[in-house]
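Methods — Computational structure assignment.
A single polypeptide chain was analysed. Its primary sequence is given first, followed by the predicted tertiary structure written as structure tokens.
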Amino acid sequence: MSYPTRPTAPQNDIKNRLLAALPAEEYDRVRPHLARLDLAQGQILHHPEVPLEQVYFPETAVLSYVFTTEDGVQLEVGNIGNNGLAGVGAALGVNRTPTRRRCWSAARRCG
């Protein structure tokens, strides 16, 4: 089965697959809002119930969603790599989340 091709962002240095799949015109609209940052292993990117302000597009990092129960037990409930994004709620008007976002591998991300 073949799928129709569409023009994608022309930049070859895009390592996040979601961003790389955008048509060039859409990527050009997003690009001014992106910044590359280095992340340390274990770095907390977002705390629960704190207003969301950023969306993260991992390039080489692995980010995880961590939920803490009332007993204090931490559970990893999801993870995001270079094929997705974290913080989609900020873009959709949901400004809080019950999970903590943590970087599990020292890496670069775009966000």
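Note: The first strand starts at residue 36 and ends at 39.
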